[in-house]
Amino acid sequence: MLTGIVFWVLAVVAVAAGVAVFRADSMARATYALAASFIAVGLVLLLVDLEFLGVITVLMMTMEMAVMGIYMIMFMGMNPALMPMDMVHGKRPALAVAIGTFVVLAAGALLVPWPTRRGAPAADLVTSLGEAIMESKMLVMMTVSPVLFATIVAALVLALPRGRYDRLGDDLRAGKAPR
Amino acid sequence: MTLQTMLLVAAALFSVGLYGAISQQVVVMVMMGLELMLNGVILAAAAFWWFLSPTPDGQVLLLVVITAMTVEMAMGFAVATLLHRSRQSDMTDMATDLSR
């Protein structure tokens, strides 16, 4: 009973905060709303005993929203980030696509005869996850690791300005004194 | 709290995120839409895990989804930085030539 009430409160907060992301009149408020939505979902994960994943979702998204705040200050300045904005295109078609998607997904959720639960969760879910990623699912983690490393390299290559080794552009001999 | 109700909430989050990803002009706001969609995916995956098959496999799948969100965030910020540096703009409408 209590779990049900908490779930519905968190669900309403998650969806309302999600809507507020695109209804807020500034990017700063939109960032806070997105963080609230993620924290609500993280707490729902805790309700279904996913302690580790719930906690890392909350921590990661709080950090990410902080990074987003820094981006807004960098790109838009502090004041413009707090000023009202409405920068959208194709509002009506986007709304139609979103409503259509929700109707299809909701129909699937309600009409599909879902199977009954098979098996029971382990006594210690965090330990079972740790054992899975170190034993039977190690290939997944070995794939994820280089993907994350490649992401770091690619993001740095894209984001960094050209350094001192590239000050002459594509013509590497341009700076050489004539003999 | 049932599988259906959790999936309904996940569908709502996904749809709201989809609206944002399609309609927003600022790159960071588009990223927010994509993250909201992944938020819905995380919730749906947790619901499937809890109500259908509560094995460690489902938890590993959730970890992969969270990793995808991390990659999306890092690359999105990098592209936004590059766009801002090269064109002094963070609007998607100023980068339509990238789709050619």
Quickly describe the structure.
Chain A is 71% helix and 0% strand. By secondary structure, chain A is mainly alpha-helical.
Describe, in plain words, how this protein is organized in 3D.
Chain B: NDH-1 is composed of 14 different subunits. Subunits NuoA, H, J, K, L, M, N constitute the membrane sector of the complex. Chain B: One of its GO terms (molecular function) is NADH dehydrogenase (quinone) (non-electrogenic) activity. Chain B: It is found in: Cell membrane; Membrane. Chain B: Keywords: Cell membrane, Membrane, NAD, Quinone, Translocase, Transmembrane, Transmembrane helix, Transport, Ubiquinone. Chain B: This is NADH-quinone oxidoreductase subunit K. The complex is a heterodimer of chains A (179) and B (100). The model of chain A has no long low-confidence stretch (mean pLDDT 82). The longest helix of chain A is centred in the middle third of the chain and has 26 residues, at 51-76. In chain A, helix 1 packs antiparallel against helix 2 and helix 2 (27-47) packs antiparallel against helix 3 (51-76). The radius of gyration of chain A is 23 Å and the shape is extended. Chain A is built from seven helices and no strands. By secondary structure, chain A is mainly alpha-helical. Among the domains of chain A are: 1-85; 125-162. Chain B is mostly helical and 100 residues long. Chain B has a single domain (3-89), classed as Helix Hairpins, CATH 1.10.287. Chain B is 78% helix and 0% strand. The longest helix of chain B is centred in the C-terminal third of the chain and has 32 residues, at 56-87. Chain B is elongated, with a radius of gyration of 16 Å. Chains A and B meet through helix 1, helix 2, helix 3, helix 5 and helix 6 of A and helix 1, helix 2 and helix 3 of B.
List the helices and strands and how they pair.
The complex is a heterodimer of chains A (179) and B (100).
Chain A: H1 2-23, H2 27-47, H3 51-76, H4 78-82, H5 91-111, H6 125-134, H7 138-159
Helix pairs in contact in A: 1-2, 2-3
Chain B: H1 3-23, H2 27-51, H3 56-87
